[in-house]
Amino acid sequence: MKKTPSENDDARDASLRVSKRVRDSLKAAAAVMGRPLYDVTNEAINDYLSGLKLGDPLAAIRRAGRSRKTA
What we know:
mainly alpha; 3 helices
């Protein structure tokens, strides 16, 4: 089922509203802490990424490299 252009626009608008809210929250946190915005932003990104359960993306590459060397 294809989305109509108005449905796509609604999703994009919602995404922009969330992004703006997050950006505003980061700016406020940086101002309250008296720290540069990029420090607070990088810290928030690192916290988010550390919470994801991503496994080791290079593990498969390492395993493939070992098996080629032994063959």
